[in-house]
Amino acid sequence: MAVVGQVSKVSRYLTPRCISDRCSSSLSAAHMMNENSRFGILGGGLAGLTSAYYLSKRLPESSQIIVWEKADRFGGWVQSSRVDDQTNGGSFVFESGPRSVRPKGLAGLISLELIRDLKLLDSVIVIPKTHPSAKNRYIYTKHGLQKLPSSVFSLITSIYKRPISLIPRALLTDLLHTTGKSRTRCIDDESIHEFIARRFGGGIGEELVSGMVHGIYAGDYKKLSVKSSLFKSVWEMEREYGGVLKGLRSSDKRQHSTDSNDEEKLRKTLDGKPLHDLINSSVWGLKGGLETLIVALREWLGRKPNVILKSAESIQSVDISPDSPSKVITSCGVYEHIDHLISALPPQILHSCLGPSLQDRLQFLTANPSVTVGVVNLAYRSARRINPIPPAFGYLIPASIGADLNPHRVLGVVFDSDMMPGVEERVGGEEVTKLTVMLGGHYYSTQLEPIPTTDQLITQACQTIKNQLGIAQDPFYAQAQIQKDCIPQYLVGHHQRMRELHRLLKSLNLSLVGSGYSGVGLNDVVKSAKDSVENLVNNGCSSGLEIFDT
């Protein structure tokens, strides 16, 4: 549903102090650098650790930074596990969370800068744009797997095959605009489905776009905000140029001047062949899995005298006041005199830790749900390639595929051995083929049945691989994880709600970072942490949501 000039339900809380252009927090930038300043970071996932990293680099060693994590490990959803084969010797690596990173835009460069500064360049696996997994991606259709076009030639050769045949038709619809009507200025947001249907006509959303949304957000494209998704740029092209193709063809290229300038400056500092190859690659990963980054961050922070890392210690409550230091109560004790808090917790978890007054004031923290994803890693032994599909990234399953062809609500399958080779995947001299099956997401949010157990997930994943890929062989090793509430769902109106939340937070010593706000990808999370810390140190305050103040 489109958002048409809605008035916020919490607008009554917006006092002049809150909506001032200046920070109304009691801290000043000078006080922020005070040798006795004390900072608390709620959550020890990637967002929390990178926030501590950037803070420690900017603050004097006499300051104190405390990171609380409820689990017995740090890293959050970045989870890599090494499996030892007791039969044949050797080992291989499974990823239960993200497994590759795109070096795209300013956020991508910030992640590369972090990798360089942590001295991880020797561990980087570069996947060039010419690699088969970069060029070969598939969508599952009623007739089996269909390769998505990676060039104009491949588009022409697939022109009569659905859903590829829908692409030129959609582009023509956009150019001529024979269906739907242009967006009026009063529409501030709409769902991805509404935008695609209005701009490109029917069919392509259900058969193609919904699959892309499954792969990134594990979400329902009929509910997610287009303005806060990967389609934001094309949505803005329509506003500026009246059409997407017109925007792409325009010689007056759209530019975000601040990001463009910052990107150019950062790019100049990332010189040398390894970084040049990385910047121009399709994706990159790390030997041993992406948790190698978490290990490096932990080791770096562990050497800093002003950083205290506390695992297996959950947040019970947080007392935040505009005019006095904050207090944090955990499962292990009470921490007082916290000058500034950075929350890397999921928004709804943070909301549950606040007092009644702040819960009411910051109710937008509960506006977006999160989805649960079942992740099943499978390993097959084979002296030859067992996957009938040529080397590829994998395939996605769109919403158009019903329960008859996709009974277990699989979102997509990643061909790990193809898309990220070189992550120690040989066992006893034999070749190992690794696949990852992702299930559930938004489907689990609407089904009446309980979420499957890990054993059930493994059975469902193996059945899916046999039915959709024709691999009759059973895996010699399988593991499953239920990643509960792992991906936030930015519903329609997300940008407007975050803008309101940003204004409300100006009066509090609290910053928000992580995937719950300005992007669900690894690059987004790292950038949000760095931006928040820079604003905090330079200006004496930061909501973490400054990007929405437009």
UniProtKB/TrEMBL annotation:
Pfam families: Amino_oxidase. Binds 1 FAD per subunit. GO terms for cellular component: mitochondrial inner membrane. Its EC number is 1.3.3.4. InterPro entries: Amino_oxidase, FAD/NAD-bd_sf, Protoporphyrinogen_oxidase, Zeta_carotene_desat/Oxidored. One of its GO terms (biological process) is protoporphyrinogen IX biosynthetic process. Its cofactor is FAD. Residues 46-534 form the Amine oxidase domain. The keyword Lipoprotein does not apply. Keywords: FAD, Flavoprotein, Heme biosynthesis, Oxidoreductase, Porphyrin biosynthesis. Belongs to the protoporphyrinogen/coproporphyrinogen oxidase family. Protoporphyrinogen oxidase subfamily. PANTHER family: PROTOPORPHYRINOGEN OXIDASE. Catalyzes the 6-electron oxidation of protoporphyrinogen-IX to form protoporphyrin-IX. This is Protoporphyrinogen oxidase. It comes from Puccinia coronata f. sp. avenae.
